[in-house]
């Protein structure tokens, strides 16, 4: 085995040719018998591999544009360039293929082209994991390498590009090393060196000039030698599988018992080498050629992606190169594909496209605005193009067309642009929201940030985005449940006003920082900057007084709470086209659930008092925003809109305006907004900078998490650890393990703000809602974490981008202290029904952002 061998790399050896002529008939007969003995099962195993998984899948055939016509999503057809490294390097030379691909692809060539096609590490080596060699086998391989490998020329020197690496046993203690059966080795090789033209020409200068044939002959020569050298490793591997009861590998299959002519010839003629029965495992035999078996170990990869989407102008050059190098269609191929591109940016609200189980050939919008757009097109198709019978917008005849310099495919032979879905989004504002959330995350270290901008007149969503640094993989505005805190006080005040249980100028005694819930032993705490003494209901909302809101909310009965909050959309799944049919749509709950049938979840000391200031509940971001829009505008609970129109061949179809039932009186809404204006001017939002011409109405929220809540930083790190360990992560189990733990800070908060804004002298209003979970910086109040970003978004939505800002701060003596421009005296503020009870002297420079959390005295 270690000596020199005389070998020709010609496809047919002379001696073998005479043997074939002499024993032709017998060989043919044996081949027929062997084929017959395989049976139907064996023939199925030899059937060509069908690349059905690589078949073309249709992209979504529509474009998305924003409300001003700016393109935000489109489908581009093209060709993906893919390869089978195993089949490719059986007959081709790496330097020619890699060099040629880089030349024709230019800038489109991936940086890791060699690693993708050769499976090498950073140093260009491949380590064969399947073959474990004993020291004796390793010495034989070394001797073979030193002698030049399969070379038929003396004195050529060692075979380059082949090496052996010792297998290091797991663990490094003496007992581990003693338990090892002995040193074992793995083969390492450098494809770019071993398969190079220079290597084979140096070792055998008589190779044919045809590069394709000489490369094939070289891999055949290498494989036949290695097959013999690896006999022991091969037999051990098969024996291990047989002893473990495992099926044979793909390269081997069971030997059928001989029958017919096979029995007569058994022992008379020797089976071909490629069908020789394994000595260690008599029931198995090699099902491939020696070269295929060796190369499947050296290059196991059967698929590699070179380019995900090849530009149209490069396709002809790639085809010409493949033809010039005689590359087969099973070695490198072009596959029809498409790409969904997002010219304006990859906003989270757009969602994802993908395959549905019932339609593997067509990609659909799975969630987000992509899904909402497809649902809208389906409804248009059902109602306009063909009434009923279609669950999506069908494309019947596809032809290539050019529109705006981009290649598209279109139906009905029109050659026009694809259907265009007009969304309610504003790309400029969407980009601003993304920047605001990034600033909040960077400055405050949040575990989650969400922001939405809504046109209150139409309920059109102008922008929606979120930041999920731990990649929980949810559609956060709907699927993330949280406790809102003080922003829910808008709901409390709205219900009490609408039911006639309170008036804006009604006075309440809120105590001095601690309030006893009437009829119970429970004491409620206040946050920094709390109001004291006797204040009006308007001031209770503006200054976020827990004590005041409890007294107001207790005037609404539990039955009224349950009924009216459900009318506002709380406690029921939100109606939305943004989620796919299999995506969770949690309903949330207002008030605590009963632990048993004997419990009263709406007891006065717990749920009834807690919901008044936004505790003892769960809801989602869009659910809360939808209800707030109704309460601060016209009293109608209208769904938020994300799609407003679609342009098809048949015309432009505007979707119907958002409609919904009236849940509170318009007068209630007007009073609520005036109370929130007081909050922006003299309450928890008074420190917010704002442009001169911008009018604000605000409500901040700062919820301190309780024992049943979870810090999402800890939850996210737990998820990351499971991913690193390759373990399945159970979110429910993690929540149970981590609830009530706050890490080094000792506390966790949810900070938020709701801002209604309009330009002075106009009535066009927008609502901005911003939420930041678990801020880890020095601030946690809603106004300080989310306030400035929210005001920026309101100003941007109303067309104010670079205006001067001002900061209103009321001094302790009641005299306004001005930063920037003059602030009108309190008497110049718009008339309010509670103005007579308004006393500026009660306000100081502290941040009036009362945290809506409650501690039982025992918990303190």
Which key terms come to mind for this protein?
28 helices, 860 residues, 19% strand, alpha+beta, 34% helix
Instruction: Please give the count of helices.
Output: 28
Question: How much of the sequence is in beta strands?
Answer: 15-25%
End-to-end CA span: 84 Å
The largest sheet, given as strand count, sense and whether it forms a barrel, is:
7 strands, mixed
Q: Please mark out the parts with pLDDT under 50 across 5 or more consecutive residues, or reply none.
A: 1-54, 173-180, 271-282, 383-415, 802-860
Q: Find the structural class using helix and strand composition.
A: alpha+beta
Could you outline the blueprint of secondary structure elements for this entry?
Elements lengths: L13 H9 L1 H22 L17 E3 L5 E13 L1 H7 L2 H12 L7 H6 L7 E2 L7 H12 L15 E5 L7 H6 L5 E5 L1 H4 L2 H7 L7 H19 L1 H13 L8 E3 L6 H5 L18 E3 L3 H9 L5 E7 L1 H13 L7 E10 L10 E5 L2 E9 L1 H17 L13 E5 L2 E5 L9 E4 L3 H18 L3 E8 L4 E8 L8 H4 L9 H10 L8 E3 L4 E3 L6 E3 L8 E3 H6 L3 H8 L4 H10 L21 E2 L13 H7 L6 E2 L2 H12 L10 E6 L2 E4 L11 H17 L7 E2 L2 E11 L7 H14 L5 H8 L10 E11 L6 E8 L8 H4 L1 H11 L7 E6 L5 E4 L41
Parallel strand pairs: 1-14
Antiparallel strand pairs: 1-2, 2-8, 2-9, 3-5, 4-5, 6-7, 10-11, 12-13, 14-23, 15-16, 15-28, 17-20, 18-19, 21-22, 23-24, 25-29, 26-27, 27-28, 29-30
Helix pairs in contact: 4-14, 10-13, 16-28, 18-24, 25-26
